[in-house]
Amino acid sequence: MSQTPSAFRSFIPASARIPEMTLRAVLVGTILGIIFGASSLYLVLKVGLTVSASIPVAVISITLFRLMSKVGVRDATILENNIVQTTGSAGESIAFGVGVTMPAILILGFDLELTRVLLVAVLGGLLGILMMIPLRRALIVNQHGTLKYPEGTACAEVLKAGASDESMAAADPQAEGAGSRGISARTIFTGFGIGLAYKSLNVAFKGWLDAVGHVFGAPLKGGSVSMEVSPELLGVGYIIGPRIAGMMFAGGVMAYLLLIPMILFFGAQLPGVLAPGTEPISAMTPSEVRGAYILYIGAGAVAAGGIISLLRALPLIIGSIRAGIGDIAAARSGVAAAGRTARDLPLKFVGIGILLLLTLIMLAPSLHMNLLGAVLILVFGALFVTVSSRLTGEIGSTSNPISGMTIATLMLTCLVFLLVGWTGGAWYVTALSVGGIVCIACSNGGTISQDLKTGYLVGATPSSQQVSILIGALASALCMGPILLKLNETATVYVPVQQVAPQGISATAAVLDNRRESLVGPQAKTDTQSYRVWHKTDAEGGPAGKYLVDDSGQAVWLVDPGINGTHSTRPDGTEVRKFDAPKATLVSYIIKGILDRELPWELVIFGAMIAIMMELAGVPSLAFAVGVYLPISTSAPLFVGGVIRWLIDRRQARQPENQGLSEAQLTAQSDRGPGVLLASGYIAGGAIAGIVIAFLAGVLGDFDAALQKWSTANNPFFAGPNSEWLSLLPFCLLVLVLWAVARGSLLAPRKTGS
Description:
Helix content: 55-70%
Structural class: mainly alpha
Strand content: 5-15%
Radius of gyration: 26 Å
Oligomer: single chain
């Protein structure tokens, strides 16, 4: 199916005039983009990855407007639905970049300022889109048939299948897919409802435990297995498939059933403290061993895996740059087509927009940016947006090594800073701002490439898509900052200083911030005083971190953040579920390790060796490395979802009608199947419920505490000798529903089009 641009016929021909960029399409896409962006941010903080939102947004749009047409409202055209999915897809890619980079600021000892997060999200999102626009003709049009853009192509098939009568009347009868009809979003809405209800009953109403597990004794002392029984992680596992899910779980098995027991076995005989730990290994629990040693090993593995994935893609990257430059030159030397389907935003608009964004980056005080930093953003941004856009076309968004590009950007930026003498904490924010903006830019560059491919196939107007995704990116970016700050705030624990430094610690006025701060969240009721803020950067006398200090200079509270914090129990005994943000931790280690040269390099190198060992065994190391870093309770439900996908895909491959299909065609068919739609609903419903519950935690703290007390005393699913086994029953039901829907036994689509 390799067609030249001249032979290609889009679904809606260039001569057709049907509604496209309407106000309702942009509004619906913006709202859906914010919803899926919020759920993606929640996911990236939990597991360090996201899933594409384009197909779920397209399906919801088709069904929403189809339902509205039943009450007299005009049904949406295929081009309007395409604008909805284009506008709505920006949130997911921005959420990934924000979740990967911005929480690192907490680990580096700074506050998570709203203006800083907003600026990085907005500037990075818009910059990535503007930098990709000049590449559209080169990559989407001239390389049609060569660059497949798998997610964009799959989304186009969904849009064609759900085309309205008006769209079918305007369609080119010679275009591929012009005869296909019929799609329903009943499956994704059902998944959303199940995920929302399950998460609410589980977490908000304490219906059952949200994580189950077991710690082994001798001869595997300290080994443990556990699992979060959550719908969103089950859905992610189904979508990413058995290979990635299996590798991530295998990494967790290495960490929890090999490395932690080994450290406890060999370290139990040591009389003193082994750095970077703060207490003897013999006195540590498995979770404390993970916090002191495994996190550094995991971070080293992730760093090495990211760099290796980038090196593996280097031939493609070099080829992408050469081909991109050649194709741009060829496109500019040719006669510009004036048809609707060849109309991009003017290059003058793009150039002025990029210059304005770079100026704002330099002028924003919260980014601590200078001319060199802006130049690095321009150079690395242009390079990696081009690379990301082309690699997305060749290997898809899921395999696109955005993490590796971010690591490369950070390492190169920090090395440049090191060469010019910019070391120490003062330059942390500048380096992180460069990395964050470039990460979001190249993530968004890949996303808009998929969207423009979808538009090319269905016959959309490129300039309308480009304007709509700029609007969607701006709206989603403005929402990511408040959501990130609120998620961090609701899981923040104020730890009494006596608990971490029994002898007490104090600070001089010279190291204290001028501003004052009070406790927020559920603990604010127990202490209404305001304090000075101290960002302690060393471990002398007590752990490094943010402290609240009274007027005499005596530290009263250690502020343990909700993201990457280590204290999960408040003084009143209330348990808090922290966000691990694995890739943000890695980002902080790179910046601190290069600019300060303070890192337990032995542990980091051990982790790098694990990644290299996996590569030598022929196993892609990045997914395995992320599994080493994440809690096994997070990777276990991913593995369950992956196993269900494996069973369904095997069954599909044996069907008589699929016997002649290639592996790529089977995968594409499975990606559009009911299982993926239900899993997408699980993800959105579970993640949105998790965000709402986190937001309400501060408001309904007393109700939550009373409910937890009642459930502990009266609910056998929540507390008691059999609570962990009983808590698996609702999760098993969730798994059975996914399996039944995916194989077509439940919610089977109607045979006739609607």
